[in-house]
Amino acid sequence: MMSTMHATPTETDSLDVATFANPVQQRRFVTAMKRIAADRAAGNPVRVFISAAPRTMNSPKWDSWLTQITESLPDGVEILHYRNVFNERPYDWGSIVEDLDGLIIVGKQKRPGSRVYLLGPIARLELRSLIARKPVLLYGHNLGLVPVIDCRSQVLAPEEAPRLKLIAPKRWKTDSETLSAALKALNPDAGLEEEESQPHSLPHLAHPFTAPPQ
């Protein structure tokens, strides 16, 4: 079970960090990502779902965002999204979730240049279904890919269909160890690389967050 949600910071200076995860949470996440990479059999496909609301996908910038996301991922990753999965059949997340290797969330940016992104009820549930097991990343329009573990999160009303706020850290850097580990876990050729000297068991990711999504 995930821990209690922490309050979102109100002071600007409280965002002035490279990550909202503590060192133990970061180490657990990196270890888990390395194990996923080491356990991948050569030739197995890697499927990543890009979660974006219809309004986002209808934006004139959608194709550009999709290109940026694709170019940020390892070569050979299969990109899935609503239009190429559910275009001709009803939305049924349960029918595909077990076949996914990762999730990328494209939230609604609070305002241009903001590090605050809002997720609707569906995106929140998609995130919750994979956050403890697979790489889950936020796509920040000005930041690129940010592992959700490095973000601060807050559940928003209404209670019957809660939304989620994700805040990317102000000092986020794309050379972070967490992002490197997440991308390696999504590399179709990771199983061909030298085996990592880590325990074989995969650490559970239910508590990697400073403020885990609920």
Short description:
This protein is of the alpha/beta class. It contains six helices and nine strands. Helix 1 packs parallel to helix 6 (about 175-185).
Low-confidence parts: 1-13, 194-198, 206-212
Number of strands: 9
Topology pattern, helix = H, strand = E: HEHHEHEEEHEEEEH
The overall pLDDT average reads: 85
> What is the radius of gyration?
16 Å
What is the percentage of strand-forming residues?
15-25%
Number of helices: 6
The oligomeric state of the chains shown is single chain
- Give me the side-by-side strand order of the main sheet: 2-1-3-6-7
Structural class of the secondary elements? alpha/beta
Q: Calculate the terminal CA-CA distance, rounded to whole Å.
A: 9 Å
Estimated helix fraction: 25-40%
Major β-sheet, in short?
5 strands, mixed
Overall geometry comes to: globular
Task: Identify the notable features of this structure and list them briefly.
alpha/beta, disordered N terminus, 4-stranded antiparallel beta sheet, single chain, 5-stranded mixed beta sheet, 214 residues, disordered C terminus, 6 helices, 26% helix
Structure description:
This protein is an alpha/beta fold. It has helices spanning 23-39, 54-57, 62-72, 82-85, 121-130, 177-185, and strands spanning 47-52, 78-80, 102-106, 108-109, 116-119, 136-140, 144-147, 152-156, 163-167. It has a five-stranded mixed sheet, with helices on both faces. Strands 4-5-9-8 form a four-stranded antiparallel sheet. Strand 4 and strand 5 (116-119) form a beta hairpin. Mean pLDDT is 85; it is low at 1-13, 194-198 and 206-212.
